[in-house]
Design brief:
heterodimer, A: mainly alpha, two-stranded antiparallel ribbon, 12 helices, B: alpha+beta, Rossmann fold, 6-stranded mixed β-sheet, 5-stranded antiparallel β-sheet, elongated
């Protein structure tokens, strides 16, 4: 619908509307996005092709022959599949045990004030900041004496050293942001400190705990020096398999193993970030503070009561 | 209890026989700042006691100390005849509610209200019976399955109150329960507080900086000023005749005019002469009265209107009294003392700026404090 100009009134000039960035800036932006996509998708795509290539010689852009023997080995539960299983079990164990140890540490750190807080945080994070090979060298003698060297338990304990350092810092941040009024109110309502921890604090922080397990998993997942030194070659994890295949010139198998090494953390990070975002946002937008209360009860019936 | 540093406390008086809450000689430290000292208060079962004070006066710290959420450096807290000073919060039989209701976000409304019963190990049947009762008491019947995030501000307040009452406390401690609410919701939550108190009739202690809330909700009101708590008095007595000049100034009396107590005991001030009771010593003094105590009246002291103030529920006019020190009215001489006066005006009788109104004040509405 158009409006005819009103006689006797001047027609206002159209107000200029910003139509976005200049063409030059749009080009820069497009180039940056393209680079980002290539850097994210390129390496996994290259590894995927390499893992399935029978032959691939310069100057061919794509492999000239294809084979699935590396992936068959994974599916057939060969050494590669066993290494994946070992890494997953070590990673999950490190993540879960690391959270159990680091959550109380982070909580205690968050309750400190002043200089003591800085010193304690630095001390807690130090194992993660130290080079893993130095940590491994330091641990090895003790682990040999304790007959833990060369065992999966020994490797998990070694992985826990940097994992607990990283996770302590993570939970320090989590508990610094945590609303302690929830705990106060629960105490005032009659809950003991243990009940507050189990019924309020931990359930409220469930998304952050999930992310913590993922973080501990990642610390273990890519760990080479600690696994190599403490495992003594008897605990085969995926990173060690990649190293072994590279040293043996088994490019296809190295590529397949490396692709697995990349893909699982990506999936884990996506899941963890989705959980964190969902956990930090309310389930649905709260009604405005001035919204009147419904006059009658909503249709939903109360409520299954758990024992 | 012995204060840190090994200094023994002063002997504490015995708690009142029927007191649900009795606090004697309580002191709370604020770190490097001077904290609360020598706080005494006693609240009976079913009574509502308000503590008013400026922001930062320590009202919240006092409530949290009674609840056991911050340590006391001295004194004694007795709840239901039992000294709970050394007990942790969960064993004090006092529930503390934050200014902003903190419902547990991972639990439904039903489970939030059931929380105090579950941590006490109550049976499933009793929980299923009592939670709907508590929700009905705050007019939220049928809201059990809702998530706290889906509730309005007033509904969250009411759930928090129902949850607090589900613990069946002897003492309910409310920290600024209405301060974060808009006017419509304040009335809603005010009613909810009265509703839930009828369930088990706990002693209610609420802190607020809003004098209207204190007056509307409380049976007695005390003022926290300069680290000390005044004795609790009914709102009418406190707001009508504050016990000290400091309390009167905190309560914000609109009119504070200097005067003099003469040898015959009469108090002379710009609004005339009156005889204060009890009698005051001869010398300079301050008279205070509220805006609604000053009334237009024929034969009163002339007041030239210099401005109008529009409040939400009332209008006041401010002006200068046309008087000299000897009390004789004049329009020519400059005033010999501060003569600014505020009075409440009726909607149909709002004066214009520049008008001269004769005004008077009833001696019973004036509080006089000696300056020495």
């Amino acid at each position: 619908m158009t409006h005819a100009p009103v006689p006797g009134r001047t027609t206002a000039a159209p107000i200029p509307v910003a139509t976005g960035a200049s063409p030059g800036w749009r080009g820069v932006r497009l180039a940056m996005v393209t680079l980002l996509v290539i850097s994210a998708v390129g390496p996994p795509a290259l590894l995927a092709m390499l893992s399935a290539s029978q032959s691939w010689f310069y100057p061919a852009l794509l492999p000239t022959g294809w084979t699935a023997d590396a992936w068959s080995a994974v599916v057939r539960r060969g050494p590669l599949a066993r290494a994946v299983g070992t890494s997953v079990v070590l990673g999950l164990t490190t993540g879960v045990v690391g959270c159990v140890l680091a959550a109380p540490i982070g909580r205690a750190l968050a309750r400190l004030h002043g200089a003591a807080r800085h010193v304690a945080v630095a001390a807690a994070v130090l194992p993660a900041a130290a080079p893993p090979i130095a940590v491994a060298t330091g641990l090895q003698l003790t682990f040999v004496r304790a007959q833990l060297a060369g065992t999966p338990v020994g490797v998990v304990l070694a992985h826990l050293v940097p994992a607990v350092g990283v996770l302590s810092f993570f939970f320090f941040a989590v508990f610094t942001a945590y609303d302690t009024r929830l705990d106060d109110e629960a105490r005032s309502l009659g809950a003991s400190p243990r009940q507050v921890w189990l019924r309020v604090t931990l359930p409220t922080l469930r998304p952050q705990l999930g992310a913590g397990v993922g973080l501990g998993f990642l610390v273990s997942w890519g760990q080479v020096p600690l696994t190599l030194v403490i495992g003594g070659g008897r605990v085969h994890t995926l990173p060690l398999e990649v190293m072994g295949y590279v040293q043996a010139g088994e490019t296809r198998f190295a590529a397949a193993a490396a692709l697995l090494l990349i893909l699982l953390p990506i999936v884990l990070l996506l899941v963890a970030s989705a959980r964190l975002v969902r956990g930090s946002a309310p389930a649905s937008a709260p009604a405005p503070a001035s919204a009147p209360a419904p006059a009658s009860a909503p249709a939903s019936a109360p409520t299954r009561v758990s024992a | 209890m012995t204060a840190p540093g090994g200094v023994p406390d002063r002997p504490l008086p015995a708690p009142a026989a029927n007191g649900a809450l009795d606090v004697r000689g309580l002191a709370v430290s604020f770190g490097s700042h001077a904290g609360l000292a020598q706080i005494d208060l006693s609240v009976a079962a079913g009574e509502r006691f308000a503590i008013v004070g400026a922001s930062g006066a320590g009202k919240t710290s006092l409530l949290r100390a009674i609840a056991g959420l911050v340590p006391c450096t001295a004194g004694r807290v007795v709840i239901g005849g039992r000294d709970v000073s050394a007990l942790p919060p969960e064993r004090r039989d006092a529930v503390y509610l934050h200014q902003v209701p903190t419902l547990f976000p991972h639990l439904t409304v039903f489970e939030n209200v059931a929380f105090p019963m579950r941590v006490r190990g109550l049976g499933r049947a009793e929980i299923e019976r009592r939670v709907p009762e508590m929700l009905a008491a705050v007019r939220l019947a049928g809201f059990g399955a809702r998530s706290p995030q889906t509730l309005s501000g007033g509904q969250r307040h009411r759930v928090a109150l129902a949850r607090a009452m589900a613990a069946r406390p002897s003492v309910l401690l409310l920290d600024e329960p209405l301060s974060s609410l808009d006017p419509g919701l304040r009335e809603e939550v005010r009613e909810a507080i009265l509703d839930v108190q009828h369930v088990d009739r706990p002693a209610v202690v609420l802190v607020t900086h809003d004098l209207d809330d204190a007056g509307l909700l409380a049976d007695r009101v005390a003022v926290l000023l300069d680290r000390r708590l005044t004795a609790g008095t009914p709102p009418s007595a406190l707001f009508g005749h504050p016990p000290t000049l400091a309390v009167a100034r905190f309560l914000g009396f609109a009119n504070e005019l200097p005067g003099h107590v003469l040898a015959d005991g009469t108090f002379e001030w710009p609004l005339g002469r009156l005889r204060p009771a009890p009698a005051l010593p001869c010398g300079p003094a301050i008279g205070l009265c509220r805006a609604d105590a000053v009334r237009p009246a024929a034969g009163g002291v002339p007041l030239r209107i210099t401005g109008l103030r529009y409040h939400a529920q009332r209008t006041t006019a401010v002006g200068e009294l046309l008087v000299r020190r000897d009390g004789q009215g004049t329009s020519a001489d400059p005033p010999a003392w501060p003569t600014s006066v505020e009075l409440q005006v009726l909607p149909g009788a709002v004066p214009a700026i520049g008008d001269i109104l004769p005004v008077t004040v009833d001696a019973r509405d004036v509080s006089v404090f000696p300056l020495r």
